[in-house]
Amino acid sequence: MSFFDDLPGPAERPRQPQQLRPGWSGPPTDELPGVVPLGAFLYSSPRMVVALKLVEVYTTGCLLDLVWSIRRGNESGQEWREILEESFNRPRSSLDTRTGLQLGVALSDGTKAAAAIHGPSSFENSNDVTGPVLTTLGGGGGSNNDEHTQFTGRYWLWPLPVEGDTQLVVRWDALGIPESSLVLSGEQLAEALGRVRNYWSE
What we know:
Layout: E1 31-32, E2 34-36, E3 40-44, E4 48-57, E5 62-71, H1 77-87, E6 102-106, E7 112-114, E8 133-144, E9 148-158, E10 166-172, E11 177-184, H2 186-193, E12 197-198
Antiparallel strand pairs: 1-12, 2-4, 3-4, 4-5, 5-9, 6-7, 6-10, 8-9, 10-11
């Protein structure tokens, strides 16, 4: 018998029940989304673009997959480094939505929301949050060099706006990107909703 065979094993840990996440905090963890492959520009110029690559639709909301890309012009090395730093779109404050890339939505009923780093405060009763809520879920990576920079970001919109069209609006003052927009079709989102699959349903 080995010395290690009769050593006690780790103590059994009580099984912890899974806490229910509020819908505004992010997509469900047990769903395969329906995808709307939009491939549409929010803003486009000879040197800069902000584009919506696709929308992942879940039963509770949708995930917006954005990309921004900049080509170097006649900037000096220092000026280009400042553009690279800005293009990271690092969060400044969870309360300040007016720095970096500003993203917002206007629903067909007239309600609006601007992207924030966090959704409604965790101290609020999530049952009282009616939306719309647009939450920054972080970036998906990026790259840059002496001639080009490109980054991506993901934004969660709750609840899913299938009644009428939704206007998606962007502005980035530090990079000279004026307020620009595109329309998300409620009909397309509703069609994608029909393609959502739950992981565990039979």
